[in-house]
């Protein structure tokens, strides 16, 4: 009862002598300190809002302008060319009465200085937007930098300061998009099929396309980004199927190293590192992500990283975000806990969080009826989850417990299995590790949370992320920071425990209470999720034959090299080519998300065919030439996608407009129904300063992966680590007899 007593600030009872008021100093002190922390955050946000509001100037620059104007006036000169006198004449009558002539002049000068300062800010912001709209640097060859680009790199914006200065995503001319589409479709179609598609495209461009384009341009003038809101809603939130495997993705721990084998200790440091990252985001102290260390990327996706959950609906889900949360939700052996990570306004030390986690591990209480597999509701179909939530989790004890999970900073699973590469079957262990992070037991993750952390029994860790609120590079940035902070900043004692002191008077983590009737228990959702999970075939393999270092010596982009290699592997595996999806980001623009690079091109197909027919030296020289053309073509496609001249997002938005207008387009319908049998993505390594691979070569990240997009296709994720290694994650479905994720001769020979 001690915890319950300290949970209230004061209590009173009626006695014969009157009201007996008992104040709890400790509880009031905690409320005071918590309020201080809250007000500090508010002040920090206010300060950052002021700084962002006047960027690229600074608040102190206002004083400089005022002093300069007053100094000029002191020298008997009028820098305003009569505007100060005009402002003075239009001051309210009350100021004319209460202020002297000199005071009126000073006030008018302050008004003029402020207006001049604001005008300069708007002018600088406009210039910065023009500056950030310059993308020619991306198309320049390495080692050759134009004078314009040299002038451009003077800009050094901060995390959120440049948000309003980033350019809006442009709407490409419909003629260019249709032309690029036809060029991308040519290697995948026979001559009669291509002729038919060309006729459909021509009719669309000359008739309905122009009408849809006008609406899209109108939206682009009004909206910050003409793609992102529709992309989030229609691609992610309106999906009614399971988000587990189909949408969520995973991130892995270090390949060779486990910093500590103690589960509670690893959880303590991991949770601490994540909360330190959240503090940096809230205070805007996080270094902005920049291309080539200079060009800023949009940071809007960071805003919903923590305290966010996806809630189900009938037609569409909703993303809910809370400004702050002082606890995390923890799952262990079928029980849910609320773990407070702040006490008296301060963040618990890693050792204290370890202590609290160990309390959960030592708790032997059994799950309540329906509690153990409750998480399967988030793994199955969305509509049943909505109805169950409305009927059984919208009030009372179930709602309070569900709120504790959904409002938590993030979700933590203390898994009772061991994972990792070590053991007699390292390759098979990595595959099982990937499957565990992708779907687990289908009920021991909370797939609706923005991200869930998994800490295994042997100290290995991993992450499962929901996709609608942000894309993989944002989560990868978070996970890189977490791994590096855990291993190199926070560290462990010699016996593997977290560092720091422990306040053993901390109240125990709170068991969440449930009253779940039998009809609300997740049997049907679990069956759907389990069938989906059992069908997934995952394979993870580190490629060590060569890496980025050797590829760059050939003066070829490593990404282009890998993508062409994947085309060759698919051709050898399936005997043909397929529509290939490679994710590219569009965060050079405000609120940008992704664009598709159609990696299967005429040039890549020509190279693959030539290589397969190679039988004498003349063909070998031709293959080298074709490979160079294919890599250059791929790089150009990637640059076009990044700079707003991609194909698929434009066509997607035109399709959405057509649906709003109630008109049918055979061309758009056919384009958007084409299956992506090879879906690929590179996990970027963004914070090289955090990983000292030269001195710590064993601290290599495995990256992460995702499920296949098409039932008869592959999902391929890869991460280029250091100079000599590339990690691949391949997924497919067992139900398709033509796909196998385990490396075949096709991959080995590539």
UniProtKB/TrEMBL annotation:
Superkingdom as given in the UniProt entry: Eukaryota
Name the Gene Ontology molecular function terms of this record: carnitine O-palmitoyltransferase activity
State which Enzyme Commission number(s) the record gives.
2.3.1.21
Q: Which organism is it from?
A: Cyclopterus lumpus (Lumpsucker)
**What Gene3D superfamilies does the record tag this protein with?**
6.10.250.1760, Chloramphenicol acetyltransferase-like domain (3.30.559.10), Choline/Carnitine o-acyltransferase, domain 2 (3.30.559.70)
Higher taxonomy: Eukaryota, Metazoa, Chordata, Craniata, Vertebrata
Provide the catalytic activity annotation: (R)-carnitine + hexadecanoyl-CoA = O-hexadecanoyl-(R)-carnitine + CoA
InterPro entries according to UniProt: Carn_acyl_trans, CAT-like_dom_sf, Cho/carn_acyl_trans, Cho/carn_acyl_trans_2, CPT_N
List the PANTHER family.
CARNITINE O-ACYLTRANSFERASE, CARNITINE O-PALMITOYLTRANSFERASE
Please state every residue range assigned to the domain named Choline/carnitine acyltransferase.
Answer: 169-739
Q: Which GO terms describe its biological process?
A: carnitine metabolic process; fatty acid beta-oxidation; long-chain fatty acid transport
Keywords linked to the UniProt accession = Acyltransferase, Fatty acid metabolism, Lipid metabolism, Membrane, Mitochondrion, Transferase, Transmembrane, Transmembrane helix, Transport
Q: Record keywords: Lipid metabolism included?
A: yes
This one is known as carnitine O-palmitoyltransferase
Q: What is its main location?
A: mitochondrion
Annotated compartments: Mitochondrion outer membrane
Give the similarity note.
Answer: Belongs to the carnitine/choline acetyltransferase family.
Q: In which pathway does it act?
A: Lipid metabolism; fatty acid beta-oxidation
Q: Residue ranges of the Carnitine O-palmitoyltransferase N-terminal domain? A: 1-47
NAD is among the record's keywords: no
A single cellular component GO annotation: mitochondrial outer membrane
Residues spanning the membrane: 50-75
Where does the record place the catalytic residues?
A: 467 (proton acceptor)
Topology versus the membrane, per the UniProt entry?
A: Multi-pass membrane protein
